[in-house]
Amino acid sequence: PGWSPHVIPVAILGATGMVGQHYLSLLQDHPWFSLSDDPEIVFVCNPVADAYALAREGKTVIDNRSLHRAEPLVPVQPHHHNPPVSLIANPNCTLQSFLLPLPPLHEHFGIAQLSVTTLQATSGAGRDFRLSDTCLSHIPDEEHKTQTEPLKILDADFPISVQCTRVPVSH
Question: Among 19, 46, 113, 147, which is disulfide-ready with 13 (CB 3.0 to 4.6 Å)?
Fold first, then answer.
C-alpha cells in the first residue's frame, strides 16, 4: 500500500498583512494543508490574537509574532527537536538566513562565538516604511532578537556580535 497523506486543516489569523498574505500564498493548493474554519494548526500573524486561548482549545499554534519568543516554556522553531507543546514561536525573520547550520555545528564542534551582519530590505520594515539613498545602521530591537533567539533555540550560552542594517531595496 502506498503512502496516503492526511490533509491537515489550517487557518491564518492576520491573512490581510504582508506575512499573512505570504502564508496564504504558500498554503493555497498545498497537498498537505487546506484552509479551514475548524483548523488543527493556526498560524498567527495578527497582533491582537490570543495564542494561549487557541492552544487551550487544542489547536497547535505557530505564532509569527515576537510576543512569545522570550518566554522560557515556549519553544522557538526551527528547533533541533520537536517538543510536545501546542504553542510554538516562529523565530525572527533575520535568523532564517543563518540559523539552519547552527544546530549541527554546535552539536558536533561547539560554537565559541558568532558574528552576524545582516543587510535587510526596507520591505521587512512594513508597507509604510520608506528609506532612499542611504542605509539605516541600526534597526531597533533587531540586534537583541538576533543575539538571544539563537541561544534559546540551541539551549546554549556563547557571545553573539550583531550588526543589523536596513538598506533601500525591496525584497
Answer: 46
**DSSP output for 51-114:** HHHHHHTT-EEEE-SSTTTT-TTS-BSS-SS--S-SEEEPPPGGGGGTSTTHHHHHHHT--S-E
Q: Is 141 helix (H, G, I), strand (E, B) or coil?
A: coil
Q: Which of 141, 91, 70, 146 is nearest to 114 (CA)?
A: 146
Neighbours of 11 (CB within 10 A): 18
The rounded distance, in Å, linking the Cα atoms of 68 and 64 is: 9
Q: How is residue 60 written as a grid cell? A: 497547535
**Residue 72, pLDDT score:** 76
Beta-sheet pairing, 33-35 with 8-13: parallel
Scan for cell 517538543, then name that residue.
83
Predicted confidence (pLDDT) at residue 82 exceeds the cutoff of 80: no
33/52 Cα distance (integer angstroms): 22
Could you read off the pLDDT of 137-148 as tens digits, one per residue?
A: 888 788 999 999
